[in-house]
Amino acid sequence: MTTQPFIGVVCDASFSVLAGRIKNAGYRIARVSPAMLKPGMRPAVDIWVVDCDDMDAVADDLAEIDAPVLALSNRPGVDERMAYRTWCARILKTLEKWTADAWHPRRESASTPDHYAAVEGVWLLAGSVGMDTAVRDFLEALPEVPPVAFLYAQHIPEGEQLALVNRLNKVNRHLHTVLAVGRHWFNPCQMLVVPTSCRLQFGHQGEVFSLRDAWGGRVDPHIDQLMMSVAGLQPRLTGAIMFSGASTDGLQGAQALHGLGCEVWAQDPNTATEPAMPQAINRLRLASKVGSPEQLANYFTERYADSAIDLPEDFSRARGRARPVPRSRRKDAESVPSVPDVRFPGRG
Q: Would 55 be classed as within a structural domain?
Protein backbone atom coordinates (compact mmCIF):
# COMPACT_ATOMS: atom_id res chain seq x y z
CA MET A 1 0.00 0.00 0.00
CA THR A 2 1.39 3.41 -0.99
CA THR A 3 1.67 5.60 2.08
CA GLN A 4 2.97 8.76 0.46
CA PRO A 5 2.39 10.15 -3.00
CA PHE A 6 5.59 11.01 -4.84
CA ILE A 7 5.16 14.38 -6.56
CA GLY A 8 7.11 15.24 -9.70
CA VAL A 9 7.45 19.02 -10.11
CA VAL A 10 8.36 20.09 -13.64
CA CYS A 11 9.85 23.58 -13.73
CA ASP A 12 11.97 25.41 -16.25
CA ALA A 13 13.88 27.45 -13.70
CA SER A 14 16.77 26.31 -11.54
CA PHE A 15 14.69 27.08 -8.45
CA SER A 16 10.91 26.73 -8.02
CA VAL A 17 9.19 28.47 -5.11
CA LEU A 18 6.17 26.21 -5.65
CA ALA A 19 8.35 23.08 -5.41
CA GLY A 20 9.64 24.36 -2.08
CA ARG A 21 6.10 24.98 -0.84
CA ILE A 22 5.02 21.47 -1.82
CA LYS A 23 8.05 19.95 -0.08
CA ASN A 24 7.46 22.02 3.06
CA ALA A 25 3.87 20.75 3.12
CA GLY A 26 5.29 17.28 3.74
CA TYR A 27 5.21 15.68 0.30
CA ARG A 28 8.07 13.74 -1.27
CA ILE A 29 9.05 15.55 -4.45
CA ALA A 30 11.33 15.21 -7.43
CA ARG A 31 12.12 18.49 -9.23
CA VAL A 32 12.77 17.85 -12.90
CA SER A 33 13.39 19.94 -16.01
CA PRO A 34 11.07 19.77 -19.05
CA ALA A 35 13.70 17.67 -20.86
CA MET A 36 13.29 14.92 -18.25
CA LEU A 37 9.68 14.38 -19.34
CA LYS A 38 10.97 12.46 -22.38
CA PRO A 39 10.19 8.70 -22.36
CA GLY A 40 12.91 6.76 -20.61
CA MET A 41 14.09 9.81 -18.66
CA ARG A 42 11.18 10.75 -16.43
CA PRO A 43 11.13 9.29 -12.90
CA ALA A 44 8.23 7.14 -11.72
CA VAL A 45 6.03 9.44 -9.68
CA ASP A 46 2.40 9.32 -8.55
CA ILE A 47 1.40 12.86 -9.57
CA TRP A 48 2.96 15.44 -11.88
CA VAL A 49 2.78 19.17 -11.17
CA VAL A 50 3.87 21.25 -14.15
CA ASP A 51 5.08 24.77 -13.38
CA CYS A 52 6.49 25.97 -16.71
CA ASP A 53 6.33 29.28 -18.51
CA ASP A 54 5.96 27.57 -21.89
CA MET A 55 3.28 24.90 -21.50
CA ASP A 56 3.19 24.23 -25.26
CA ALA A 57 6.77 22.97 -25.13
CA VAL A 58 5.82 20.09 -22.83
CA ALA A 59 2.27 19.40 -24.07
CA ASP A 60 3.18 16.36 -26.21
CA ASP A 61 5.20 14.72 -23.44
CA LEU A 62 2.42 15.35 -20.93
CA ALA A 63 -0.08 13.61 -23.21
CA GLU A 64 1.91 10.36 -22.94
CA ILE A 65 2.03 10.31 -19.14
CA ASP A 66 -0.33 7.86 -17.41
CA ALA A 67 -0.07 9.45 -13.95
CA PRO A 68 -2.36 12.35 -13.02
CA VAL A 69 -1.08 15.71 -14.25
CA LEU A 70 -1.75 19.06 -12.64
CA ALA A 71 -0.84 21.57 -15.33
CA LEU A 72 -0.76 25.08 -13.95
CA SER A 73 -1.79 28.27 -15.67
CA ASN A 74 -2.29 31.95 -14.84
CA ARG A 75 0.75 31.91 -12.56
CA PRO A 76 1.40 35.32 -10.96
CA GLY A 77 4.91 36.63 -10.74
CA VAL A 78 6.82 35.82 -7.56
CA ASP A 79 7.10 39.56 -6.94
CA GLU A 80 3.28 39.71 -6.72
CA ARG A 81 3.49 38.31 -3.23
CA MET A 82 -0.17 38.13 -2.17
CA ALA A 83 -1.39 36.81 -5.53
CA TYR A 84 1.44 34.28 -5.69
CA ARG A 85 0.78 33.09 -2.14
CA THR A 86 -2.91 32.58 -2.94
CA TRP A 87 -2.00 30.73 -6.14
CA CYS A 88 0.34 28.36 -4.24
CA ALA A 89 -2.30 27.73 -1.59
CA ARG A 90 -4.78 26.77 -4.31
CA ILE A 91 -2.31 24.26 -5.76
CA LEU A 92 -1.69 22.70 -2.35
CA LYS A 93 -5.43 22.51 -1.77
CA THR A 94 -5.88 20.64 -5.06
CA LEU A 95 -3.09 18.19 -4.17
CA GLU A 96 -4.66 17.56 -0.80
CA LYS A 97 -8.03 16.75 -2.37
CA TRP A 98 -6.38 14.36 -4.81
CA THR A 99 -4.51 12.51 -2.05
CA ALA A 100 -6.93 12.82 0.88
CA ASP A 101 -8.36 9.30 0.59
CA ALA A 102 -4.93 7.73 0.82
CA TRP A 103 -2.50 9.82 2.78
CA HIS A 104 -1.94 12.96 4.78
CA PRO A 105 1.58 14.43 4.95
CA ARG A 106 1.78 14.74 8.72
CA ARG A 107 2.83 12.29 11.36
CA GLU A 108 0.93 9.02 11.39
CA SER A 109 -0.53 7.04 14.25
CA ALA A 110 0.93 3.67 15.16
CA SER A 111 -2.57 2.26 14.80
CA THR A 112 -3.66 0.27 11.75
CA PRO A 113 -6.96 -0.38 9.95
CA ASP A 114 -6.84 -4.01 11.12
CA HIS A 115 -7.86 -2.93 14.60
CA TYR A 116 -11.05 -1.28 13.33
CA ALA A 117 -12.57 -4.74 12.89
CA ALA A 118 -12.52 -5.06 16.68
CA VAL A 119 -14.32 -1.74 17.35
CA GLU A 120 -17.88 -2.37 18.53
CA GLY A 121 -18.93 1.26 18.56
CA VAL A 122 -17.71 4.81 17.96
CA TRP A 123 -18.86 7.45 20.46
CA LEU A 124 -18.47 11.20 20.23
CA LEU A 125 -17.93 13.08 23.51
CA ALA A 126 -18.63 16.79 23.02
CA GLY A 127 -18.81 19.96 25.08
CA SER A 128 -16.94 23.10 26.09
CA VAL A 129 -16.47 24.71 29.50
CA GLY A 130 -16.34 22.05 32.20
CA MET A 131 -16.36 19.14 29.78
CA ASP A 132 -12.88 17.92 30.73
CA THR A 133 -13.93 17.58 34.36
CA ALA A 134 -17.15 15.79 33.42
CA VAL A 135 -15.35 13.38 31.08
CA ARG A 136 -12.76 12.67 33.77
CA ASP A 137 -15.56 11.68 36.16
CA PHE A 138 -17.19 9.62 33.39
CA LEU A 139 -13.99 7.71 32.61
CA GLU A 140 -13.07 7.19 36.24
CA ALA A 141 -16.45 5.58 36.81
CA LEU A 142 -15.91 3.00 34.05
CA PRO A 143 -14.61 -0.22 35.65
CA GLU A 144 -13.04 -1.09 32.30
CA VAL A 145 -13.30 0.39 28.84
CA PRO A 146 -15.37 -1.71 26.42
CA PRO A 147 -14.06 -2.30 22.88
CA VAL A 148 -15.25 1.07 21.61
CA ALA A 149 -13.50 4.10 20.15
CA PHE A 150 -14.06 7.63 21.41
CA LEU A 151 -13.86 10.95 19.59
CA TYR A 152 -13.38 13.86 22.02
CA ALA A 153 -14.39 17.38 20.89
CA GLN A 154 -14.09 20.34 23.24
CA HIS A 155 -13.89 24.07 22.68
CA ILE A 156 -10.41 24.64 24.04
CA PRO A 157 -7.41 26.79 23.00
CA GLU A 158 -5.03 24.97 20.69
CA GLY A 159 -2.11 25.45 23.07
CA GLU A 160 -3.89 23.50 25.81
CA GLN A 161 -4.70 20.38 23.80
CA LEU A 162 -1.52 18.40 24.43
CA ALA A 163 -1.86 19.02 28.17
CA LEU A 164 -5.45 17.78 27.89
CA VAL A 165 -4.27 14.61 26.16
CA ASN A 166 -1.73 13.99 28.92
CA ARG A 167 -4.38 14.46 31.61
CA LEU A 168 -6.82 12.11 29.91
CA ASN A 169 -4.15 9.42 29.61
CA LYS A 170 -3.82 9.45 33.40
CA VAL A 171 -7.54 9.09 34.12
CA ASN A 172 -8.23 5.51 33.05
CA ARG A 173 -5.39 3.04 32.54
CA HIS A 174 -7.51 1.06 30.05
CA LEU A 175 -7.83 3.99 27.63
CA HIS A 176 -5.20 5.45 25.29
CA THR A 177 -5.72 9.07 24.20
CA VAL A 178 -4.01 10.80 21.25
CA LEU A 179 -4.42 14.10 19.42
CA ALA A 180 -5.94 13.37 15.99
CA VAL A 181 -3.44 15.33 13.89
CA GLY A 182 -2.19 13.37 10.92
CA ARG A 183 -3.59 9.98 9.95
CA HIS A 184 -5.22 7.61 12.42
CA TRP A 185 -7.80 4.84 12.63
CA PHE A 186 -10.48 4.27 15.21
CA ASN A 187 -9.21 1.57 17.56
CA PRO A 188 -10.77 -0.24 20.51
CA CYS A 189 -10.03 1.40 23.85
CA GLN A 190 -8.67 4.54 22.23
CA MET A 191 -9.80 8.16 22.26
CA LEU A 192 -8.95 10.64 19.51
CA VAL A 193 -9.00 14.29 20.57
CA VAL A 194 -10.33 16.54 17.79
CA PRO A 195 -7.74 19.21 16.95
CA THR A 196 -8.73 22.85 17.28
CA SER A 197 -6.55 24.01 14.40
CA CYS A 198 -7.81 21.83 11.55
CA ARG A 199 -10.83 19.91 10.37
CA LEU A 200 -11.12 16.13 10.31
CA GLN A 201 -12.28 13.87 7.53
CA PHE A 202 -13.42 10.26 7.95
CA GLY A 203 -12.79 7.31 5.64
CA HIS A 204 -14.75 4.13 5.06
CA GLN A 205 -12.63 1.79 7.18
CA GLY A 206 -12.42 3.83 10.35
CA GLU A 207 -9.72 6.12 8.99
CA VAL A 208 -9.43 9.61 10.44
CA PHE A 209 -7.17 12.25 8.93
CA SER A 210 -6.73 15.96 9.47
CA LEU A 211 -7.00 18.55 6.73
CA ARG A 212 -5.22 21.88 6.47
CA ASP A 213 -8.56 23.69 6.50
CA ALA A 214 -9.52 25.67 9.60
CA TRP A 215 -12.91 25.00 11.16
CA GLY A 216 -14.02 28.57 10.57
CA GLY A 217 -16.53 28.67 13.41
CA ARG A 218 -17.01 31.21 16.16
CA VAL A 219 -15.41 28.65 18.47
CA ASP A 220 -13.28 25.67 17.41
CA PRO A 221 -13.53 22.82 16.83
CA HIS A 222 -16.91 23.43 15.21
CA ILE A 223 -18.93 20.62 16.78
CA ASP A 224 -21.95 20.88 14.46
CA GLN A 225 -19.63 20.65 11.46
CA LEU A 226 -17.78 17.72 13.03
CA MET A 227 -21.04 15.85 13.62
CA MET A 228 -22.11 16.35 10.02
CA SER A 229 -18.75 14.95 8.87
CA VAL A 230 -18.75 11.91 11.14
CA ALA A 231 -22.40 11.12 10.34
CA GLY A 232 -21.22 9.33 7.20
CA LEU A 233 -18.83 7.03 9.06
CA GLN A 234 -19.20 3.36 8.11
CA PRO A 235 -20.10 1.49 10.22
CA ARG A 236 -22.03 4.46 11.45
CA LEU A 237 -21.38 6.46 14.58
CA THR A 238 -22.99 4.68 17.51
CA GLY A 239 -23.77 7.70 19.63
CA ALA A 240 -22.87 11.08 21.06
CA ILE A 241 -22.73 12.21 24.67
CA MET A 242 -23.19 15.94 25.16
CA PHE A 243 -21.42 17.21 28.25
CA SER A 244 -21.11 20.57 29.98
CA GLY A 245 -20.97 23.50 27.56
CA ALA A 246 -21.59 27.22 27.47
CA SER A 247 -22.95 27.30 23.92
CA THR A 248 -25.41 25.37 21.80
CA ASP A 249 -22.80 24.39 19.20
CA GLY A 250 -23.64 20.73 18.64
CA LEU A 251 -27.41 21.10 18.78
CA GLN A 252 -27.94 20.94 15.02
CA GLY A 253 -25.47 18.08 14.74
CA ALA A 254 -27.22 16.19 17.54
CA GLN A 255 -30.52 16.61 15.69
CA ALA A 256 -28.95 15.20 12.53
CA LEU A 257 -27.42 12.22 14.36
CA HIS A 258 -30.69 11.56 16.17
CA GLY A 259 -32.49 11.54 12.83
CA LEU A 260 -30.01 8.94 11.53
CA GLY A 261 -30.74 6.64 14.45
CA CYS A 262 -27.62 7.38 16.50
CA GLU A 263 -27.99 7.46 20.26
CA VAL A 264 -27.76 10.86 21.91
CA TRP A 265 -27.10 11.12 25.64
CA ALA A 266 -26.71 14.26 27.73
CA GLN A 267 -25.20 15.24 31.04
CA ASP A 268 -27.74 16.30 33.66
CA PRO A 269 -27.62 20.13 33.47
CA ASN A 270 -27.76 20.28 37.29
CA THR A 271 -24.36 18.56 37.40
CA ALA A 272 -22.76 20.62 34.60
CA THR A 273 -20.40 23.54 35.06
CA GLU A 274 -22.15 25.20 32.11
CA PRO A 275 -25.63 23.77 31.49
CA ALA A 276 -26.47 25.49 28.16
CA MET A 277 -25.47 22.64 25.86
CA PRO A 278 -27.19 19.73 27.67
CA GLN A 279 -30.20 21.96 28.35
CA ALA A 280 -30.59 22.60 24.62
CA ILE A 281 -30.41 18.86 23.93
CA ASN A 282 -33.01 18.09 26.60
CA ARG A 283 -35.31 20.89 25.46
CA LEU A 284 -35.74 19.15 22.12
CA ARG A 285 -36.00 15.72 23.79
CA LEU A 286 -33.11 14.35 21.79
CA ALA A 287 -31.43 12.52 24.67
CA SER A 288 -32.40 8.93 25.41
CA LYS A 289 -30.19 8.95 28.52
CA VAL A 290 -29.63 11.87 30.93
CA GLY A 291 -27.55 11.75 34.08
CA SER A 292 -24.47 12.80 35.97
CA PRO A 293 -21.13 11.69 34.48
CA GLU A 294 -21.11 8.75 36.90
CA GLN A 295 -24.65 7.75 35.92
CA LEU A 296 -23.79 8.00 32.25
CA ALA A 297 -20.82 5.70 32.93
CA ASN A 298 -23.18 3.19 34.52
CA TYR A 299 -25.48 3.33 31.48
CA PHE A 300 -22.45 2.84 29.26
CA THR A 301 -21.23 -0.16 31.26
CA GLU A 302 -24.69 -1.74 31.10
CA ARG A 303 -24.92 -1.18 27.36
CA TYR A 304 -21.66 -3.04 26.76
CA ALA A 305 -22.04 -5.61 29.54
CA ASP A 306 -21.69 -8.51 27.10
CA SER A 307 -18.92 -6.99 25.01
CA ALA A 308 -15.48 -8.50 25.08
CA ILE A 309 -12.39 -8.52 22.93
CA ASP A 310 -8.87 -9.83 22.51
CA LEU A 311 -6.85 -6.83 21.42
CA PRO A 312 -4.31 -7.54 18.65
CA GLU A 313 -0.87 -8.27 20.07
CA ASP A 314 0.70 -5.31 18.28
CA PHE A 315 -1.80 -2.80 19.67
CA SER A 316 -0.02 -1.25 22.64
CA ARG A 317 0.04 1.94 24.58
CA ALA A 318 2.70 4.59 24.30
CA ARG A 319 6.16 3.59 25.48
CA GLY A 320 5.40 -0.03 24.55
CA ARG A 321 3.39 -0.98 27.62
CA ALA A 322 1.05 -3.88 26.95
CA ARG A 323 -2.65 -3.10 26.81
CA PRO A 324 -4.93 -4.77 29.37
CA VAL A 325 -7.10 -7.42 27.74
CA PRO A 326 -10.81 -7.43 28.69
CA ARG A 327 -12.93 -10.57 28.79
CA SER A 328 -11.91 -12.86 25.96
CA ARG A 329 -13.78 -13.39 22.76
CA ARG A 330 -11.64 -14.20 19.78
CA LYS A 331 -12.52 -12.54 16.49
CA ASP A 332 -11.83 -14.50 13.35
CA ALA A 333 -8.95 -13.22 11.32
CA GLU A 334 -11.19 -13.28 8.28
CA SER A 335 -13.28 -10.49 9.79
CA VAL A 336 -10.44 -8.00 9.49
CA PRO A 337 -11.14 -5.72 6.50
CA SER A 338 -8.60 -5.62 3.73
CA VAL A 339 -6.91 -2.32 2.97
CA PRO A 340 -7.65 -1.12 -0.56
CA ASP A 341 -4.85 -0.06 -2.85
CA VAL A 342 -4.34 3.68 -3.10
CA ARG A 343 -5.83 5.14 -6.24
CA PHE A 344 -5.22 8.63 -7.46
CA PRO A 345 -7.64 10.44 -9.74
CA GLY A 346 -6.87 10.27 -13.42
CA ARG A 347 -6.62 13.10 -15.83
CA GLY A 348 -9.66 14.76 -17.17
A: yes
